Please model this.
Amino acid sequence: MAGRLQPNPGLSVTAYNDPVTQTAPQTPPVAPAAPRSPILELPDELISQIAAGEVVERPASVVRELVDNALDAGARQVTLRLLAGGVRLISVEDDGCGILRSELPTALKRHATSKIASLSDLESVHTMGFRGEALAAICSIAEMSVLTRVEDSQESHGWLLDGRSGELQPTARNRGTTVEVRELFFATPARRKFLKTDATELAHCIEAVRRHALARPDVGFAIWHEGKLVAQWRAVASDHADPLRQRLADVLGEDFVAQAVAVDWPLEVPDDGNGHRLRVRGFAGIPDAARSRNDWQFAYVNGRYVRDKVITHAARSAYEDVLHGHRQPVYALFVSLDPTRVDVNVHPTKIEVRFRDSREVHQAVRRAVESALAVPRSAGKAEPASAPETEAAPAWPPASHQTGLAFAPRAPEIGHRVSDLEALWGGASSAAPTSPARTDAWASPRPLPSEAGQPSAPPHHAVRAEPAEAPPHPLPQGEWPLGRAIAQLQGVYILAENAQGLVVVDMHAAHERIVYERLKQQMDEEQLASQPLLIPATFAATPEEVATAEDSAVVLAMLGLEVVPFSPKTLAVRAVPTTLSQGNPVELARSVLAELSQHDASTVVQRARNELLATMACHGAVRANRRLTLEEMNALLRQMETTERSDQCNHGRPTWRQVSMKELDALFLRGR
Ligand code: ADP
Ligand code: MG
Model:
């Protein structure tokens, strides 16, 4: 800072600070002096109208505030009635605690609230409101009335308060409150002009209620417009097995939950010895369910709907490896944390929050979503076709993306021989003998960490050498989720039969993901295992390739590659990653060098690690047009069932599809 203020010897100080005067060094233009006005305190009404400008943008803003209040009052049922998209009337009726007659006039005053009384309350608000300005602000720009009754008051009736006149009169009413807002913006016609059509305003109002509804399955909501019921979500019974799932299905549709995985990430964050809980729950859509717009991303902090960059970014980055391009994931995520660790008072409508430690929130959200998505769906589909709906919730502790899957695979046995897997590697060398030295990571999947108390994964060599021509018996329950391979189609797809019907697998895409995940796992552990080539593979290299190879020797070693200059124009590949040992070493080296040359060698492993590994995986994956035996195909299916993220290829496309018997029957107009 100090440096900027130093007078520059070549320029006058003003010219240095002001580029405009620098190019036009005449005297700077002087603003015409405004006539001095006296300083006055603003009248209350005007202050409220100014506040209303921040709080109330459109009818939906009023809806949000009034529903906030109803929920704070402990309502079980909230009913909204609208006329003309909410511009002519917004009425929100609840069955909450009501307002005492004596406090009723105060409720409409500015900065009047029952929710906080001190600064320390402010730091730990559990309610939706606390600023005490919503009713006052709305009252200043619309005609408002409040009809309310407190149950245990001696009076047998409720009270109606006219916001404009302040007049109070007794009226019949059950426990609860109805706030009516008519002719929004009647006093500020300029703002009224900004409103869109009734249909648009109605849509915004419904959206506002929908956001509340997602967070409160225990509360029923109904929305009436012009006398017609336009949306209704009944309260989910408290003994329901999964109220959140039910509410999401009601509000966002059964498809949303059918295409989503449950997220549940309890995390103990050590914090100055005491530790506090940070929890992320909800549902995250599978990559297939992604949309072109980001309109199905619901994030909540301590029950409050928020638009928060930290959460949005964390969620998006959890999809990084499975969703490419501009597709937008769908999710409803509920973050709960100690209220003292989040400031909800940074925005007048409380739609933004500030975290004390945004990194911890980012990490938790990212890990929560990532680990929920990592579990391959095929791993949870071993049930017979008759009970397909509920996705298995990830086990707790959640499968760490570093240690592989935290559940034992359900496939009872792995029916392949090691040599079948080996054969997948080489182009033509399918007759490779099985030597112990060659049981590399692909051939022998790392034993899955079996949780204490759970049956451990069967040893991978418990071979049931199934004859490839096994007759297609109906599959017993608990069979392999991705079924039994029955054929290969045009050298591209594997067809398999499972309990639901037909499984179609994109063989290259699936294998690429398996190799990629394996490379990532090895890299997490330290570096890729390397295998020297008996005969180094040499190739004519460009000067850039030679230079990159020399500069990046350390990085190459981490990647399990040894590429050394052989002559000024030739490079020799002397070792390749064991996992990729059957691929073409020259192609592999070339593409890795090309990638490395685009990055700064010293940081590439941190910053572009996954891209690099993806490139390498592509070279290691089985190519299209390779004929596979049934045993090889089965081996690939079994690998998919136990590989994280195997439902998507490295480019975010699906690797397999289920075609159910029902769909097949429909194709053939066959009734069952
Ligand atoms: P805030 O919600 O921030 O407290 P408001 O202006 O929205 O401010 O409401 C002022 C007060 O009026 C609330 O604190 C609450 O005590 C009371 N109130 C408003 N709406 C309701 C309602 N639907 N049921 C019961 N009390 C209400
Ligand atoms: Mg409020």
User: Anything to note?
Assistant: Residues 1-25, 381-475 have pLDDT under 50 and may be disordered. The pocket of adenosine-5'-diphosphate (ligand 1) is lined by residues 65, 69-70, 73, 94, 96-99, 107, 112-115, 129-136, 177 (CB under 6 Å). The longest strand covers residues 530-540. The two ends are 79 Å apart (CA to CA).
